[in-house]
Amino acid sequence: MRHFDLCIIGSGSGNSLIDEQLDDQSVALVEKGIFGGTCLNVGCIPTKMFVHPADLASAPERSARLGVQLTRDKVDWPGIRDRIFTRIDAISEGGEDWRAQAPNVTLYRAKGHFTGPHTFAAGGEEFSADRFVIAAGSRAVVPPVAGVDPQWWDERRDERPAWAHTSDTVMRTDDLPGRVVIVGGGYVASEFAHVFASFGSDVTIMVRSQGMLREQDAEISEAFTRSMARRVRLLTGVVPTEIATEGDGTARVLASDGSEHRADVVLFATGRRPNGDTLNLPAAGVETDREGYVVVDPHQRTTAEHIWALGDVCNPWQLKHVANHEAKVVKHNLLHPEQPRSSDHRFVPYAVFSEPQVAAVGLTEHQARAAGYDITVAKQDYGSIAYGWAMEDDEHFAKIVAERGTGRILGAHIMGPEASVLIQPLIQAMSFGLPAAEMARGQYWIHPAMTELVENALLALDV
Ligand SMILES: Cc1cc2nc3c(=O)[nH]c(=O)nc-3n(C[C@H](O)[C@H](O)[C@H](O)COP(=O)(O)OP(=O)(O)OC[C@H]3O[C@@H](n4cnc5c(N)ncnc54)[C@H](O)[C@@H]3O)c2cc1C
Ligand SMILES: NC(=O)c1ccc[n+]([C@@H]2O[C@H](COP(=O)([O-])OP(=O)(O)OC[C@H]3O[C@@H](n4cnc5c(N)ncnc54)[C@H](O)[C@@H]3O)[C@@H](O)[C@H]2O)c1
């Protein structure tokens, strides 16, 4: 049986572990899908490459109130799609070729699973390794709906009707779909609703709960839901009950409120499940929690001493910057097991790249109150700062939650232009323990930049 020093399962963030520091180790890299993983091929990167043109395409919706009449003349979907994937596919292929020619790396292009604590099977071969890193990511979940076969996204993928999509496939459709039904109200639903609505598709969102982005601070979720409802047909408290394929290959979607919708594309944006269940983890002594995430200690070590895990397979944030952070920790701990580092999950930020953008870090107001903090909350409208006047903004805001007395920032939530950028100084303040008043008063804030939103929100806190 062939033996390796290290086996890495998953070529997304797992691939970034391999560099010259591992040149003296034999490495097996196992990848069943597109080389480079979710973020590069079907996640963060291509979605944002669609979001940016969508931001441009939706400019006419925002510009008329400022006296600038714009029209969206044409959206060249095949051109946009091919520009994006010509670039991405080349990176994926180049990365795979680069790995394949590395003398110390053996690439297994197959679905693999553990056969014992130190043994693994992939591509008809069984091999052993001293140490393993599980970086197997997560996969889209498709809920049970009459007329929808979950095997369309697995073994029976050839039978999948043209209308049935997850985020893995929807960016590669031949044409811009005229009618899109999106199921779900989280990150993926919000971003693709923006893309398709901006490009001119007729979009219907069916969201099971009473609003979108329900994990966010309640005021943000409510405001975002109102905003999205102005752009698309938003059905809250509604799920699809049955989907039938029509003679022309499109979908007829029956919904729980009795409504019926025709669609060229139905996008299931209903969450992602960690891939640990595909790896026969009990054979290796690796435990998972009730939601299927691989259990790790602060050093990213699993319940088996010689096996580490990182990314979506073991953390519920399911974000690339968290996977990257954990990969750096695992890398250090593989090289320096006697001086292990811990992951820092104290202040994990996130952003939803929709229209409007949403970004957040830390506790929501409700979570802070439930945790028993004595809090002060400030809500600052974009329209109250000079740059917001320039934009005639009457919708967007920032909200900061801080501890009364200490001024410690517990959470920050922003909905509006550049929210994903404006949140960064607040992440920094929380990470380095900078109290709100000191942060507001101890530095210059450029006038009249959008960051005055953060300055004024900090000053408005009753610390
Ligand atoms: C549409 C979309 C948009 C996103 N946008 C953002 C964003 O803007 N910002 C952000 O921070 N995050 C975003 N994410 C999340 C981000 O993509 C993931 O958190 C990140 O890619 C996870 O990295 P990973 O290395 O854990 O897993 P992955 O990159 O998924 O890598 C896991 C790899 O393991 C392989 N694999 C799994 N099981 C096996 C097996 N049994 N045998 C062999 N190989 C296997 C898979 O094929 C896959 O290539 C987005 C996700 C999606 C779906
Ligand atoms: N900008 C970003 O960082 C970004 C963008 C896209 C995706 N992601 C990552 O990908 C993950 C997956 O995104 P997502 O939007 O699919 O998941 P999500 O968890 O954000 O949202 C899932 C949505 O589906 C709904 N839902 C779940 N089960 C359902 C069912 N049976 N019937 C009807 N509705 C159901 C939920 O109520 C929720 O509205 C996210 O958790 C996120 O970590 C991140």
Automatic annotation (TrEMBL):
<dbReference type="GO" id="GO:0003955">
    <property type="term" value="F:NAD(P)H dehydrogenase (quinone) activity"/>
</dbReference>
<keyword id="KW-0547">Nucleotide-binding</keyword>
<dbReference type="InterPro" id="IPR001100">
    <property type="entry name" value="Pyr_nuc-diS_OxRdtase"/>
</dbReference>
<feature type="binding site">
    <location>
        <begin position="184"/>
        <end position="191"/>
    </location>
    <ligand>
        <name>NAD(+)</name>
    </ligand>
</feature>
<dbReference type="InterPro" id="IPR004099">
    <property type="entry name" value="Pyr_nucl-diS_OxRdtase_dimer"/>
</dbReference>
<comment type="similarity">
    <text>Belongs to the class-I pyridine nucleotide-disulfide oxidoreductase family.</text>
</comment>
<dbReference type="InterPro" id="IPR023753">
    <property type="entry name" value="FAD/NAD-binding_dom"/>
</dbReference>
<dbReference type="InterPro" id="IPR016156">
    <property type="entry name" value="FAD/NAD-linked_Rdtase_dimer_sf"/>
</dbReference>
<feature type="binding site">
    <location>
        <position position="271"/>
    </location>
    <ligand>
        <name>NAD(+)</name>
    </ligand>
</feature>
<feature type="binding site">
    <location>
        <position position="48"/>
    </location>
    <ligand>
        <name>FAD</name>
    </ligand>
</feature>
<feature type="binding site">
    <location>
        <position position="112"/>
    </location>
    <ligand>
        <name>FAD</name>
    </ligand>
</feature>
<feature type="disulfide bond" description="Redox-active">
    <location>
        <begin position="39"/>
        <end position="44"/>
    </location>
</feature>
<protein>
    <submittedName>
        <fullName>Mycothione reductase</fullName>
        <ecNumber>1.8.1.15</ecNumber>
    </submittedName>
</protein>
<keyword id="KW-0285">Flavoprotein</keyword>
<dbReference type="GO" id="GO:0050660">
    <property type="term" value="F:flavin adenine dinucleotide binding"/>
</dbReference>
<feature type="binding site">
    <location>
        <position position="312"/>
    </location>
    <ligand>
        <name>FAD</name>
    </ligand>
</feature>
<keyword id="KW-0520">NAD</keyword>
<feature type="active site" description="Proton acceptor">
    <location>
        <position position="447"/>
    </location>
</feature>
<feature type="domain" description="FAD/NAD(P)-binding">
    <location>
        <begin position="4"/>
        <end position="327"/>
    </location>
</feature>
<dbReference type="Pfam" id="PF07992">
    <property type="entry name" value="Pyr_redox_2"/>
</dbReference>
<keyword id="KW-1015">Disulfide bond</keyword>
<dbReference type="Pfam" id="PF02852">
    <property type="entry name" value="Pyr_redox_dim"/>
</dbReference>
<dbReference type="GO" id="GO:0050627">
    <property type="term" value="F:mycothione reductase [NAD(P)H] activity"/>
</dbReference>
<keyword id="KW-0521">NADP</keyword>
<keyword id="KW-0676">Redox-active center</keyword>
<dbReference type="InterPro" id="IPR036188">
    <property type="entry name" value="FAD/NAD-bd_sf"/>
</dbReference>
<dbReference type="InterPro" id="IPR012999">
    <property type="entry name" value="Pyr_OxRdtase_I_AS"/>
</dbReference>
<keyword id="KW-0560">Oxidoreductase</keyword>
<keyword id="KW-0274">FAD</keyword>
<feature type="domain" description="Pyridine nucleotide-disulphide oxidoreductase dimerisation">
    <location>
        <begin position="348"/>
        <end position="457"/>
    </location>
</feature>
